[in-house]
Amino acid sequence: MRQLSLLLLVILPGLTVTSVSLYYLFPEWIALEVSHQNFQRVAENPASTLTEVYIAQAAENRHRINCFAEGVGVLFGLSILAMGVHGICLIPKEKKNPHL
Predict the structure, then answer these.
(1) Where are the domains of the chain?
(2) Hey, what's the torsion of the CAs at 35, 38, 44, 47, to 10 degrees?
(3) 12-27 per-position pLDDT tens digit
(4) What global pTM score does this model have?
């Protein structure tokens, strides 16, 4: 019963948080790479105005912050998952007394 409750209340939510965060991290990572390339292109172009550079930098920073937040979600989910697995490992096994 203890193993089932740890599985349902700790391990599965930890796995869910990790999975959802990873699901949203990968597209955001791709958007960050595209945004970074755009920022480099705008920054290296001598015809770009300062406003265009600021806009490209803000877009890159937005994706960078989103990637950080999703990465924290992955680590948070893995921490919860590890606590559940650790809890299951610490449950003592029932020993039957051969004299009874």
Answers:
(1) 18-90
(2) -130
(3) 999 999 999 999 999 9
(4) 0.83
